[in-house]
Please model this.
Amino acid sequence: MTVVGTRGATLTEGRADFPTGFVWGAATASYQIEGAVREDGREPSIWDTFSRTPGKVAGGDTGDVACDHYFRHADDVSLMSELGLAAYRFSVAWPRVQPHGSGPVNARGLDFYSRLVDRLLEAGITPYVTLYHWDLPQALEDAGGWPERDTAYRFAEYAAAVYARLGDRVHNWTTLNEPWVAAFLGYGNGVHAPGRTDPAAAFRAAHHMLLGHGLAARALREAGAREISLVLNLSPVITPAQVADPGAAPSAADAEAVGRIDTLLTRQFIDPAVRGEYPAEFLDIVGRNGGVDHIRDGDLAIINQPIDLLGINYYNPCVVESGPGQAADAAWPGSEDIRFCPADGVPATAMGWPIVPNGLSRLLVRLSDDYPEVGLIITENGAAFDDVVEDGRVHDARRADYLDGHLRAVHAAIADGADVRGYLVWSLLDNFEWAEGYRRRFGIVHVDFATQRRLLKDSALWYREVIARNGL
Ligand code: FCB
Model:
């Protein structure tokens, strides 16, 4: 039996066919793969400084060499061709382009991305460029970082410089990757660079990132960019009972906890970007955490630039319940009286992240109901497992299972009417996983960091088949 859903998603006895033109790809980020941190005029980013600070990154790992992609990008593009990728999402390192975060543009830094884009286009792979995936020039952090308003203006200037060089060939532009993580782990709980722990600074950072997004989106649009997106880390926020039973009704207190965390995680970012407003409840929370003076008249109009796509990075749901007396979590200022809970009864990845594929369909359907004006693309989804190389193979069946389950969830959401245009797996390569260093492997391609040898894992071979079939 074939069931035809809306938007061209069909399901035939376990097979899931995706709509024609669905974009299949993979994603990476500059600091996680490039290495070459002193090459061609690059100066330090906050991640160079942070990773060199003892105790911040597991194993004392740094991105100094990473996957050596700066020097191996041509081979890496060949790997992408071998997999049949239609799209490759990568980020540009701001400190290569403007080594001190402002001032003259470093042409040699841009040359690298220009070569990469040419290679991709020769291979028939569409580049998706992210302008900020967390590697802020250290000089800008020294001047106050994202909590300082000026950083937003510097970001827009940098974005325009990248567009001026690549805009003739690149049509898909993302301003920011996961501003929630960059602001609240960077300035809230200090687990990420620059490692500050100041709730007021975290809220200011988040607002200035959004302002930078608006300013950059406006500049890119004026310069002629065709497709502009913002990438957010999103999760459905659910109660412990809803892990197993999505329909379980929450108590009034749990519903309040869920709503508040959803405001901090989701609506803090989407509402201003897509609707030009902050939720009133959100402004109350900011008011109690340092005040709202940094949100100036006119900012929301700047932030509210038309975007063509909302990029979704999904890994797991966020499980919370009411917890009277609980202190706010440092990553979630405003979360007083809320308890963050494990997801009982489901398997977890090597990160300890619960595997709940239907969380992705719930999220996609909710987003397309609440924000119908914006198209969706999965810009990251994937899993870390403790892979082993055996006789030249990596039998990572659990990763392929994870991807299969989440792709079925995407398919179900499309059949329910969600406007999902593509799926980019995280990640092409094992890489520098931020505070976890190299011990957490997310790649569908294994990297031996001692020899830089690449090896397609079973999940990569599986993904190649999925792409070739346009479905499961
Ligand atoms: C996301 C990041 C990405 C990667 C994955 C596992 O939060 O955007 O760089 O680290 O998590």
In short: Residues 29, 32, 177-178, 181, 233, 313, 380, 426, 433-434, 442 surround beta-D-fucopyranose (CB under 6 Å). The chain is about 40% helix and 15% strand. The radius of gyration is 21 Å.
